[in-house]
Amino acid sequence: MSAPSPHEVTQLLEDWSNGDKAALDKLTPLVYDELRRLAHHYISRERPNHTLQTTALVNEAYLRLVNQRDVHWQNRAHFFGVSAQVMRHILVDHARGHARRKRGGDFQQICLDEAMLMMPERAAEILALDEALNNLERYDARKSRIVELRYFGGLNVEETAEVLKLSPVTIRREWNAAKAWLYKAVTSDG
Question: What is the pTM of this model?
Fold first, then answer.
């Protein structure tokens, strides 16, 4: 099966936004596969062969995305840009939940997918990155958005450029500057 064209996905998103329920049925396998690819890219930075992690992240992101009622999807890039934000929020929420449980509060039953998604060291890293990313956003919102799309959304340079309507050269330059800024923010003692 060949990959759908960006135009085909955009048209289905527009049709679905305009109330065509059949468009969602056609769209689901197309965007779900792409979300899975993005989540796998992100999760691949972790320990290899954890397909449950990818599945948990994709399922939660997909459910949040398709249940949004007030969004008019402009195009494929818009959808996957929002997907990156959703994945970031899911990971941060899980990290916060893990930190709360580690302190002994809020015991709750979680599924195996969620347990495998959030290892203790990963939770601390995501929370530190989220705090630094929020600080970066106050300093330079565009660099923060680039990090969000690349790190949490798993988008490559060209995809990030498409979402932000910038050149790949600008994305590379700002990605490198943002990584340096975040490294300093996360590793500094103060």
Answer: 0.63
Distances (CA, A) of 5 to 8, 75, 114, 163, 186: 5, 12, 33, 16, 39
Instruction: Return d(Cα 146, Cα 175) in angstroms, integer.
Output: 6
User: In terms of Cα–Cα distance, which of 64, 42, 67 is closest to 53?
Assistant: 42
The DSSP output letter for 70 is S
d(CA 70, CA 184): 38
- Which residue in the block uniquely carries the two structure tokens 């990156």? 84
As a whole number of angstroms, the distance between CA 109 and CA 26 comes to 34
25-69 pLDDT tens trace: 888 888 888 888 777 766 665 545 444 467 788 888 888 888 777
Long-range contacts of residues 156-162, Cβ cutoff 8 Å, at least 24 apart: 159/77, 159/80, 162/77
Helices (runs of H) and strands (runs of E) counted in the chain: 9, 0
Token pair of 189 as six digits: 């003692």
Q: What amino acid occupies position 41?
A: H
Token pair, residue 68, equals 């949004």
Give domain limits for the chain: 6-187
